[in-house]
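Let us practice reading a record.
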Amino acid sequence: MTESFEHIPVLLNEVLASLSPKEGEIFVDCTLGGAGHSVEIAKRLGRSGTLIGIDQDCVAREYATSRLMSLDEETRPKIFVMPANFSELDAVLTSIPVPGIDCILFDLGVSSVQLDVLERGFSYHEGAPLDMRMNTEDAGIKAEDIVNTWDEKSLERIFRVYGEERFSHQIARNICKSREVSKITTSDELVEIIKESIPAAKRRSGGHPAKRTFQALRIAVNDELKCLETALDCAIRWLNPGGRICVISYHSLEDKRVKNAFREYEDRCTCGPEVPVCVCGKKPILKSKPRGTILPSQAEIDRNPRARSAKLRCAHKLNN
């Protein structure tokens, strides 16, 4: 395999500080990608540790496995690279098996493996087939199928809900008009339709005009938000007491679900404000540490522009 992409792990130092991996621990990377985070964590787990990497992308798995197995055999942990979506975490961990997890990482969004390989169709900067499947071995729908077969109302809804696109109605309408003339098959064709749907004055700010529409299509193709909710519940359940979880998100829809999941396990009391002392007995399971989000420094953004929108949330499992 040739390296046709550049992988720079986002918020690496902050993740290492929050997860604080120790020798002999069990670590799960739910979004293995190019293994940028995992390689550094593997060095801290030692020979008695275990590293489990999960990725549905066969190209990512191949590249990540090569990187991880190139570590010193005398000091590297036991390594398992599993072909799965992170929503299948239960099945992955019972198949190995492990008694629990000490630290777990989610680095959401699109990996460098996917963005930098033109044929994957994730980038709106180049003309490429409208694919956007994170698992190309899956026969599921492609972005091309959605763009050319979904009705106008359905297109408008995903652009508005998943992309938070102000001009969702115009974009959906123009896509439907365009495909009546000829099928839309490449990313550059779709980009032109999107540009024509957004007033020129609005295209000059807020980044690339196709960014939100492409995000919406990718989320719809891969059912990302539902998978994330399932995976977060599984991850928190599998954490050992004192275990740590880190999640890097890249847009508000992801971050909101991470925030809500952490809050649900932090504030479990159902007594209500009218009850002065808790009687329901539902103790908190997680504690956010720190509260809120950790953002990349300007120096990191200058080094790696893809870190610009990253937000890191971290939590520890309590010793109940």
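A brief commentary: Strands lie at 26-29, 50-55, 78-83, 101-107, 239-249, 286-288, 311-317.
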